[in-house]
Automatic annotation (TrEMBL):
<keyword id="KW-0157">Chromophore</keyword>
<dbReference type="GO" id="GO:0007602">
    <property type="term" value="P:phototransduction"/>
</dbReference>
<feature type="transmembrane region" description="Helical">
    <location>
        <begin position="138"/>
        <end position="157"/>
    </location>
</feature>
<keyword id="KW-0472">Membrane</keyword>
<feature type="transmembrane region" description="Helical">
    <location>
        <begin position="49"/>
        <end position="67"/>
    </location>
</feature>
<feature type="transmembrane region" description="Helical">
    <location>
        <begin position="178"/>
        <end position="197"/>
    </location>
</feature>
<keyword id="KW-0600">Photoreceptor protein</keyword>
<feature type="transmembrane region" description="Helical">
    <location>
        <begin position="111"/>
        <end position="132"/>
    </location>
</feature>
<keyword id="KW-0675">Receptor</keyword>
<feature type="transmembrane region" description="Helical">
    <location>
        <begin position="16"/>
        <end position="37"/>
    </location>
</feature>
<feature type="transmembrane region" description="Helical">
    <location>
        <begin position="220"/>
        <end position="240"/>
    </location>
</feature>
<keyword id="KW-0681">Retinal protein</keyword>
<protein>
    <submittedName>
        <fullName>Bacteriorhodopsin-like</fullName>
    </submittedName>
</protein>
<dbReference type="GO" id="GO:0009881">
    <property type="term" value="F:photoreceptor activity"/>
</dbReference>
<dbReference type="InterPro" id="IPR001425">
    <property type="entry name" value="Arc/bac/fun_rhodopsins"/>
</dbReference>
<keyword id="KW-1133">Transmembrane helix</keyword>
<keyword id="KW-0716">Sensory transduction</keyword>
């Protein structure tokens, strides 16, 4: 049970899950302040991108604050709050690809492809983890989520986004490649967590004998990965705006 002091819930020294929720909250709030404060020092054509970066980390910081409280009060993984966070922030991360390639012909059709694929990935992932997480058919929903994820990877690495970024100049091409690595490597931790956290996550096989311990471990990994991915996206956009200024 969480310790209490003067009616305020505090984190036990061995509660690493709650500790990473707290660190994630502070890191993403600090990133939001930085991105918002730098808006006036940023060229107009990149301000929307930097604003979106600040919104991503701000939304995540608010959710992490609530997730930390939920975890401390119940000892459970805040799956619902986590997916609410993702369903708001992940499509915004996809919007960044549209914004940095808009000036060289990115269309609203491409924007909606990215948003739709991200929503399919998240909604089917939530159904599989929260509704069918203890049943073997959870792998079916995980597979649908995986297809949507790899479609996003395709668009960014080989499809329309990659082609547009390549024609937008070396700075945008470099930023797109770094963001693409975030999606390919950084986002890969989420399907791994799904596989380990659900009974049938890998084609109906049960890989974990202690689901509660596995979920606690994956919460820690999720929290660290979230901070790196979301803050990293914003820093890439910030670096892009500054590299073009120097050029």
């Amino acid at each position: 049970m969480p310790q209490t002091l003067l009616n305020a819930t505090v984190i036990a020294s061995d509660n690493y899950v709650a500790f990473t929720f707290f660190i994630g909250t502070m890191a993403m709030m600090a990133a939001s302040v930085f991105f918002f404060f730098e808006l006036n020092n940023t060229d107009k054509k990149w301000r929307t991108s930097l604003l979106v970066s600040g919104l991503i980390t701000f939304i995540a910081a608010v959710h992490y604050y609530y997730m930390r409280g939920y975890n401390l009060e119940t000892g459970e993984s805040p799956t619902f709050f986590r997916y609410v966070d993702w369903i708001l922030t992940v499509p915004l991360m996809c919007v960044e690809f549209y914004l940095i390639t808009k000036k060289v012909g990115a269309t609203q059709g491409l924007l909606w492809k990215l948003i739709f694929a991200s929503l399919v990935m998240l909604v089917t992932g939530y159904i599989g983890e929260a509704i069918y997480g203890t049943e073997t058919q959870s792998w079916v929903w995980g597979a649908i989520s995986g297809v949507a994820y790899f479609y996003i990877v395709y668009l960014i690495w080989f499809g329309d986004v990659a082609k547009l970024a390549g024609s937008a100049g070396p700075a945008v091409a470099k930023a797109n490649k770094v963001l693409a690595w975030f999606v390919l490597v950084g986002w890969a931790i989420y399907p791994l967590g799904y596989i380990l956290g659900t009974q049938g996550g890998l084609f109906g096989m049960q890989l974990v004998t202690d689901p509660k311990a596995a979920q606690a471990s994956m919460d820690i990994v999720y929290n660290i990965a979230d901070a790196i991915n979301k803050i990293g996206f914003g820093l890439v956009i910030y670096a892009l705006s500054r590299s073009e200024e120097k050029a």
